[in-house]
Design brief:
Elements: H1 2-14, E1 35-39, H2 47-50, H3 57-70, H4 73-87, E2 91-104, E3 107-112, H5 113-123, E4 128-141, E5 145-156, E6 161-170, E7 175-179, E8 182-186, E9 189-197, E10 200-205
Parallel strand pairs: 1-2
Antiparallel strand pairs: 2-3, 2-5, 4-5, 6-9, 7-8, 9-10
Helix pairs in contact: 4-5
Length: about 210
């Protein structure tokens, strides 16, 4: 019995000890990160409204609504969802993801590009979640129309992908233009996500 115990202990002492995997050790990461970037295009030029005086504001809003509807925002959201489904990127950067609200005829319409895209992804069986939303230009004309602009980062739902933190900043240098007796300031900036994939950290910036 004593001999057996000695041999067993000796064998255990001689067994190679596996190297501990560091929490942030990129040696275990093949370096592959698939990303995608798309400008979603709001569907209209805000200059139509900005350049209108009080007498022509209603006509400018009507022209803007027509342009937005003709740009087929729901259809374009489905097309982007199909592209995401085909390529399966780990991270998706979206610019000018807008939300329009207006009354068109007898209907109150809300066209939210992010909501439409996420719904299309869900219907297609593609699993993504919103990592960060940056709120940018917001314009509201009471009883007529509202517009809000966002930059967004989506991340694929995957146990190997983790969002550790996010950050957004607006640029100091901004553009503004006269509109409706005042000024409209167009906000632009960047959004980032601190990401870990297979133990390796990196930053993704939109």
């Amino acid at each position: 019995m004593k001999i057996q115990i000695v041999i067993l202990c000796f064998c255990m002492m001689c067994m190679p000890i596996p190297e501990a995997k560091s929490q942030d050790d990129c040696r275990y990461f093949d370096g592959t990160v698939k990303v995608m970037s798309r400008n979603m295009y709001p569907g209209a030029d805000l200059g139509l409204i900005a350049g209108a005086d009080a007498d022509h504001l209603q006509d400018a809003v009507q022209a803007t609504m027509e342009s937005v509807i003709q740009s087929r925002i729901p259809r374009r959201a489905r097309q982007i969802a199909a592209e995401i489904g085909k390529n399966k990127p780990d991270l998706v950067a979206l610019q000018e993801a807008t939300r329009w609200k207006f009354k068109y005829g007898n209907r109150r319409m809300v066209l939210d590009q992010l909501d439409l895209l996420m719904e299309a992804l869900q219907r297609a069986g593609e699993h993504y979640k919103v990592a960060v939303v940056q709120n940018l230009t917001d314009i509201r004309i009471p009883d007529l129309i509202s517009y809000s602009d966002h930059d967004i980062i989506l991340v694929r739902v995957n146990p190997q992908l983790k969002i550790l933190g996010t950050e957004t900043r607006v640029y100091d240098a901004l553009m503004s233009f006269p509109a409706m007796g005042g000024e409209i300031e167009v906000l632009r900036g960047w959004a980032s996500a601190e990401v870990k994939k297979n133990g390796c950290r990196f930053k993704f910036v939109n």
